[in-house]
């Protein structure tokens, strides 16, 4: 698909993550996680910081910080929402750093909804 969204939803970027990158709140934690993956792939550090919970976010994040990794594929394994303001998403992200072999990151991410906006708190890598 031309202009496919980097999050592997099967939709066009304009119909998927771009509205979130432009300020539309994510309707659920899975969509937020997909939009954050796309932001890493597209090197959008401002969006990543904006959607990171203030208690756990880094002090800064730049395009240079994101520059050395090429994000290749995303697969969502599970999305759980035990209550209205807490959610967990497990995913596998395939990436390549420099000329090294492809690698995979499996993460169980934790999200919280505050004032109607989903935020990434942290994640546990397998």
Task: Using the alpha-carbon principal axes, give the shape.
Answer: globular
Question: What integer value in Å does the Rg equal?
Answer: 14 Å
Return residue spans where pLDDT drops below 50 for at least 5 consecutive residues: none
CATH architecture: Roll
Order of helices and strands: HHHHEEEE
Give the domain tally: 1
Given the helix and strand composition, which structural class is it? alpha+beta
The rounded distance between the terminal residues' Cα atoms is 31 Å
What does this 3D model show about the protein?
With 126 residues, the protein is an alpha+beta fold. The protein has a single domain, classed as Nuclear Transport Factor 2, Chain: A (Roll), CATH 3.10.450. Helix content is 22%, strand content 38%. A hairpin with a 2-residue loop joins strand 1 (69-83) and strand 2 (86-97). The radius of gyration is 14 Å and the shape is globular. 26% of the residues are buried.
Tags for this model:
Nuclear Transport Factor 2, Chain: A, 38% strand, 4 helices, alpha+beta, 126 residues
Give the helices and strands, then pairings:
Blueprint: H1 18-21, H2 29-42, H3 45-50, H4 63-66, E1 69-83, E2 86-97, E3 103-114, E4 117-125
Antiparallel strand pairs: 1-2, 2-3, 3-4
Structure at a glance:
The chain has 126 residues and is α+β, with helices and mostly antiparallel strands. 22% of the residues lie in helices and 38% in strands.
């Amino acid at each position: 698909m031309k202009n496919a969204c980097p999050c592997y939803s099967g939709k066009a970027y304009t119909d998927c993550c771009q509205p979130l990158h432009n300020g539309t709140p994510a309707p659920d934690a899975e969509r937020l996680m997909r939009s954050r993956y796309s932001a890493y792939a597209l090197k959008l550090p401002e969006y990543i910081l904006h959607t990171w919970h203030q208690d756990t976010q880094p002090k800064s994040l730049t395009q240079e910080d994101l520059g050395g990794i090429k994000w290749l594929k995303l697969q969502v394994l599970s999305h759980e929402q035990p209550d209205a303001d807490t959610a967990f998403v497990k995913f596998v992200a395939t990436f390549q750093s420099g000329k090294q072999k492809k690698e995979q990151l499996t993460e169980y991410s934790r999200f919280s909804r505050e004032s109607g906006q989903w935020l990434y708190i942290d994640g546990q890598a397998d």
